Amino acid sequence: MLFQVRPPAPKEADLTTVYDAIVVGSGAAGGMAAHILTSHGLNVLLLEAGRKLDIESELKSMEWPYDHPRRGEMPRDSHAITLNEYTVRQPPYAQGTEYKHVYSYVQGWGGSDYSKNIVVDEKDHPYTGTKYAWVRARLLGGKTAIWGRLALRLSDYDFKAKTHDGYGEDWPISYADIQPYYDKVDLYLGIGGHKENLPHLPDSLFQRTTRLNPSEVMLRQSLKKMNRVLTPYRAGVTTDGLKHNKYRSKCYGRGACGRRAGGCDIHAAFDSPTGLIYPAMDTGHLTLRTNSTAYEVTVDPATGKARGVAFVDSQSGQHYEAKGKAVVVAASTLESARLLLLSKSNAHPNGIGNSSGHVGHNFCEHVMGPSILGRVKDLVGKPRTLDDGRPGGFYIPRYRNLEERHPKFIRGYGFEGGGGTGMIPGRALSTPGFGADFKKTVRDEAGAFVHMGGFGEVLPRYESAVSIDPTVKDRWGIPVLKFDYAFGDNEKQMALDMAATGKEMFEAAGIEVLHADSDILTEGWSIHELGTARMGRDPKTSVLNQFQQSHDVKNLFVVDGSSHVSASCQNPTWTIMALAWRSCDHLADELGKGNL
Amino acid sequence: MKREDQAGLTRRDALKIAAGAALSVPVLFTRAMAAPAASAPAPRFFTREEFALLDELAETIIPADSHSPGARAAKVAAYIDGRLAEAYLPVEADVQQRWRDGLRRVDTLSQEMNGAAFLAASAEKRVAVLTRMAANEKEPKTPEEKFFRELKGTTVHGYYTSEIGIHQEMEYKGNTLQQEYAGEEPTD
Questions:
Q1: How far is B188 from chain A, CA to nearest CA, in Å?
Q2: pLDDT at residue A3 in the model
Q3: Interface contact flag, A57 B3, Cβ < 8 Å
Q4: pTM for the complete prediction?
Q5: By CB count within 10 A, which of A46, A169, A400, A403 is most buried?
Q6: Do A64 and B173 touch (CB under 8 A)?
Q7: What are the residue ranges spanned by the domains of chain A?
Q8: Per-residue model confidence as pLDDT tens digits over A285-308
Q9: Calpha distance B152→B158 (Å, rounded)
């Protein structure tokens, strides 16, 4: 039943030819761009900075902890940066360390020996400036190899947020523009979920939904009385299978999805290689070059248009330039900003596409930290159920600042959570005592816990920015990013409200609150960076138009999260892919008409 | 090619283990119970005396009961010994010394309280020693209290990630193919 289809054989990159398009980055955005452009018959070169990993053997999703010599933990010479280090220190976090390898905090989740080749070694990839937990995955597929899989749509509460509350800018599109593309993404990649008919969290075209366990049902029913919603986790996972994709299996609810930093070795959870890139390679139009770190979008001095991409082979250290009629940047929100800012020329002295001076600015994301832990008394001592045999638990959509206005903050937040136990009882260590009573308490209570944590919209501010550090370079000699970014008062007020309403919802449902945390985690913790090359109608205050096309350079597109005008509180991956699909349809059309 | 084959094997093995978990329980139990102490492999980090003390401490923290075997059968001491035998960087070298010191402190405390080393004391008196060490579990202050935290944390991790901990004690039902998701679908 569990089978894997081998990836298609790669074609050798031809650097003497002019490709129709060069795509930089192979995550959700770059994978979608490569897929859509090749589906239009265009010849595409896809450059990925990281390696191609044999992800099935890398993730070992079903390995039991006891079959691993260190129970899944990293070797002693490796270190995952802790919350405390992020809080008390400033980057570069690997500076002066004795450890051979230093990774971002995600590597510490459950002690993970399984994603060490997926997330970058901070020693090779430093950054500077204000504190920031920057999690980067450099490999074919980028962060889609380990993403949390929550796949949500945005609504006009997001796209028209300025109209709603006066802050920031509206997006140059409305929900009606993107809705057909959300539908395409749903049908092509698969998503499980339950229809709720909410205007602020539009439903997808769902496959089989995941289910709720007893504590979650209890909370859902109680929330209904408060006019709030708890819905099964909307998972970017094909729960019924996809007849058109031979590389992906349907979800078999094997569980343990949350045991490590994500990842699905049967590719039921969407990842860019099996969902988008391998099918694109099967068209014969896609050339993939991994280990290829782009450091400049090159420019034709005669026209000022993009000519191609300069990159360094991360293994050999050799430098190359690939040429294309169009360049599609999809290197991730922060890496894309870095690439644009590094691409200085006479025609574009501030970096390509940056006549507005807005590249790197209006940086936003999600604020995390407030979380609630509760215990359902009626479930203590009940026979063991399977609580983690699914891609996720539940989602509570935003309820703030929809109709009413909160006096202390604008925008909103949602909660992700789950009830019951996983493979390992997470509360064992915090259960006091020892001996037979301790053991019985751990066993009896394991299934009775329910927890959730908030994800709130961080406002985009011009002064929230990244820029190029004047002196520090990465392992390949490429100048690195310097952060100038911190949460503001709106985020702090919102976090206090998250903690308060989280507690209130548990109490209303009769769930005993064991712990309610209102502290904010370090900037960057959500891994949802957005907004450093925003779209807009005005070329003076935005970088891209509604098709993620540079206002300044018409054959340059930036199709990842950097284009987002505001962060919403809903997770961005599905929107990134819907927008990239829409923009690449437009790109192919314009290229065909000779307009680029 | 080779790596893929290995991955395939691991996956099949994992499935087999999951499917056969219930069946393998009595076998494991017998094997663990029957293993004579003398034939146990020599510890890699601890001395035999330290190892015996650690083994007893772990079993006192998570004992066998009518539901499942405890830390001894789950070989928690061997897991801790193996982790401590790994090559430590200088920055973490004090971890190894901390464990040696910690075990010594247990015996010293037992001498003070019971007039006998931990292993020589009665079961009741051993519990009394650990109860003293566990007094300030949330905010341990003395070296003994701090060692208890570390000992309990590592024992808990070693036990609940073991075959016995996962399959027998916690009766984990996942990591195997499911035709349907567990739980309830919202009806409205």
A1: 9
A2: 60
A3: yes
A4: 0.93
A5: A46
A6: no
A7: 56-136
A8: 999 999 999 999 999 999 999 999
A9: 10
